[in-house]
TrEMBL record:
This is Protein kinase domain-containing protein. InterPro entries: CDK (IPR050108), Kinase-like_dom_sf (IPR011009), Prot_kinase_dom (IPR000719), Protein_kinase_ATP_BS (IPR017441), Ser/Thr_kinase_AS (IPR008271). It comes from Ficus carica. Belongs to the protein kinase superfamily. CMGC Ser/Thr protein kinase family. CDC2/CDKX subfamily. It catalyses: L-threonyl-[protein] + ATP = O-phospho-L-threonyl-[protein] + ADP + H(+); L-seryl-[protein] + ATP = O-phospho-L-seryl-[protein] + ADP + H(+); [DNA-directed RNA polymerase] + ATP = phospho-[DNA-directed RNA polymerase] + ADP + H(+). The lineage of its organism: Eukaryota, Viridiplantae, Streptophyta, Embryophyta, Tracheophyta.
Length: 509
């Protein structure tokens, strides 16, 4: 099959798609559990190649094959880029197989069989990787991941694809340091005039832009760029920056950080469907630069242009890649120079948290001292999961040997891991613009999932599917002034630069 050049779509199709059985693969371990299916690490029996198998969940489908899976397959078959996950083929299983929990198929599902998407295998997702105790990403590493994220997204956007669920667990990373966008279950092709009516119920809440929270149904690539801004700040700050519990609170957090919409910062805000329901009761000042004053000026400048309320003024992926941030020291590192980690996926870190909770409960009951809690452990969401193992205190980023372990792990060569006694991986403060040693320096950022955000796929505003009728509808924090001090300056722009470095990415517009 001829490969598409960078920036081009893949127009050829493998003839064998769907014709092979999943029996050609040996399932090794479950590595993911998503809204739409389980993900397994597997080995192709014939070639020994390690792949990821994503089983398409059919049990809730009354109307046949799920539309999200159809979309994901359709889009991924067309995309061909080094920063976008590669869908290798589709395989099927016979209708009377047992399900993954070893339950026999029932009357209602017995004729459905199983359909799996076969992906290239990636060792980590960004959330799972960053949740490793003791891990600190360096600034060149963050720049390297950000550059790849933006390059992959730029490719999607110039090919008229919106991702619509950019978040850490959908950014996959291999041990060559390559980052790839994954989970195109919410993605769709878009028209450049943004004239169509698109669904408003997309993007995981913490990464959802203000225009969607205000009900917009005509939108474009800028929605993904807001999510990128949230991830960027999270990488540098060490924790999610806008962890709202529900849509009104999410909007309130956005306004507290980015200021309330007005005629200057977002002239069209008042035209959004739910503006009158959610507009703040009094003006709020923009505080991005104050809140993140510990970032260096180039990082702040990029962040400021990504976390821009008005989607029309928000930077595009192309503009972001041209930001001074990527062109000033310390420059992004070469992906290949990144340390290799034992594999980690969010699903597994959730299991570890589950195990820790159980240990704590046990310790409480036995009146023993509590096991040490990792600073950033989110609440448990899944119960009844199998125990796993802790990562040890030593970490490649700390110039120490890799963790050692005694039990089974993601890889057969996995080693035992001890309790999380490593240093806190969140940067405290300090200017990052000084001299830097990528492997040793104190200029570190980090990233973590924190408590799990509500998913972007459910209906907004609880079960009703309707917006809360007013800004004060039961939400105490809404419309109340922000808790920050007033003596800050907002400004800064990278506008006016004459030089464009875009051609260095080999894009085709
Ligand atoms: N190609 C892959 N290689 C390794 N791990 C993968 C791969 N694809 C997915 N995973 C793991 O499985 C998890 C879930 O996959 P994915 O996001 O595609 O499923 P989903 O059902 O759409 O999930 P969600 O509802 O969380 O969006 C990912 O976060 C990742 O950890």
């Amino acid at each position: 099959m001829a490969l598409a050049a960078l920036g081009q779509l893949n127009v050829e199709e493998l003839p064998s798609w769907g014709s092979r059985s999943v029996d050609c693969f040996e399932k090794l371990e479950q590595i993911g559990e998503g809204t739409y299916g389980q993900v397994f690490m597997a080995r192709e029996t014939k070639t020994g190649e390690i792949v990821a198998l994503k089983k398409i969940r059919m049990d809730n489908e009354k109307e046949g094959f799920p539309i999200t899976a159809i979309r994901e397959i359709k889009i991924l078959k067309k995309l061909d880029h080094e920063n976008v996950i590669k869908l290798k083929e589709i395989v099927t299983s016979s209708e009377n197989e047992k399900d993954e929990q070893n339950n026999q198929v029932t009357e209602s599902n017995k004729f459905k069989g199983g359909i799996y998407m076969v992906f290239e295998y990636m060792d980590h997702d960004l959330t799972g990787l960053a949740d490793r105790p003791g891990l600190r990403f360096t600034v060149p590493q963050i720049k390297c991941y950000m550059k790849q994220l933006l390059t992959g997204l730029h490719y999607c956007h110039i090919n008229s694809v919106l991702h619509r669920d950019i978040k850490g667990s959908n950014l996959l990373i291999d041990n060559e340091g390559k980052l790839k966008l994954a989970d195109f279950g919410l993605a769709r092709f878009f028209a450049n005039d943004h004239d169509g009516n698109l669904t408003n119920r997309v993007i995981t809440l913490w990464y959802r832009p203000p225009e969607l929270l205000l009900g917009a149904t005509k939108y474009g690539p800028a929605v993904d760029m807001w999510s990128v801004g949230c991830i960027f700040a999270e990488l540098l700050h060490g924790k999610p920056i806008l962890p709202g519990k529900n849509e009104p609170e999410q909007l309130n957090k956005i306004f507290e950080l980015c200021g309330s919409p007005d005629e200057i910062n977002w002239p069209d805000a008042s035209k959004t469907p739910w503006y009158n329901n959610f507009k703040p009761s009094r003006p709020m000042k923009r505080r991005v630069r104050e809140m993140f004053r510990h970032f260096d000026r180039y990082a702040l400048d990029l962040l400021d242009h990504l976390l821009t309320l008005d989607p029309n003024q928000r930077w595009t992926a192309e503009q972001a890649l041209d930001a001074d941030y990527f062109w000033n020291d310390p420059v992004p590192c070469d992906p290949k120079s990144l340390p290799k980690y034992e594999s980690s996926h969010e699903f597994q870190t959730k299991r570890k948290r589950q195990q820790q909770r159980q240990n704590e409960e046990m310790a409480k009951r036995q009146k023993l001292p509590h096991p040490q809690q990792h600073a950033r452990l989110p609440p448990i969401q899944h119960v009844g999961q199998a125990p796993s193992h802790w990562h040890g205190p030593n970490h490649p980023m700390n110039n120490a040997p890799p963790p050692v372990s005694s039990g089974p792990s993601h890889h057969q060569y996995g080693k035992p891991r001890g309790p999380p006694t490593g240093p806190n991986r969140y940067p405290t403060s300090g200017n990052q613009s000084g001299a830097f040693n990528p492997n040793r320096g104190g200029q570190v950022g980090s990233f973590s999932s924190g408590p799990y955000p509500p998913q972007g796929r459910g209906p907004p505003f609880g079960g009703s599917g309707m917006p809360v009728p007013g800004p004060r509808g039961g939400h105490s924090g809404y419309g109340v002034g922000p808790p920050y001090s007033q003596n800050t300056q907002y400004g800064g722009s990278a506008a006016g630069r004459g030089h464009n470095r875009n051609q260095q990415y080999g894009w085709q517009q």
